[in-house]
Amino acid sequence: MTAVGTSDTSQLTFEEALAELEAIVRRLEEGSGKLDDAIAAYERGAMLKRHCEAKLQQAQMRIEKVVLGPDGTATLEPADLD
């Protein structure tokens, strides 16, 4: 797992980022650390949240495709992954 303060999240899987984010939330909820550490953890958590959201969006795009109807209206349909 990546240490708090390491800014690169690009190599983390969704599961790794989510686990680290959950650990940060637990530590922040305990409130037992120093203010500077809490701020750094919050910043790391925000980066991890954005990373997880991007991973989820990528996954959603892989399973949906945009289809234009005869009237030009765009709809989403499940992608044919076979």
Written account of the structure:
The protein has helices at 14-30, 35-63, and strands at residues 64-68, 74-78. By secondary structure, it is an alpha+beta fold. The protein has a single domain, classed as Helix Hairpins (Orthogonal Bundle), CATH 1.10.287. The protein has a two-stranded antiparallel ribbon. Helix 1 packs antiparallel against helix 2. 11% of the residues are buried. Residues 1-5 have low confidence and may be disordered.
Q: What structural class should be given to the helix and strand makeup?
A: alpha+beta
Report the portion of residues in β strands.
5-15%
- The number of helices is 2
The strand count comes to 2
Principal-axis shape? elongated
Function: Bidirectionally degrades single-stranded DNA into large acid-insoluble oligonucleotides, which are then degraded further into small acid-soluble oligonucleotides.
Protein name: Exodeoxyribonuclease 7 small subunit
Keywords: Cytoplasm, Exonuclease, Hydrolase, Nuclease
EC number: 3.1.11.6
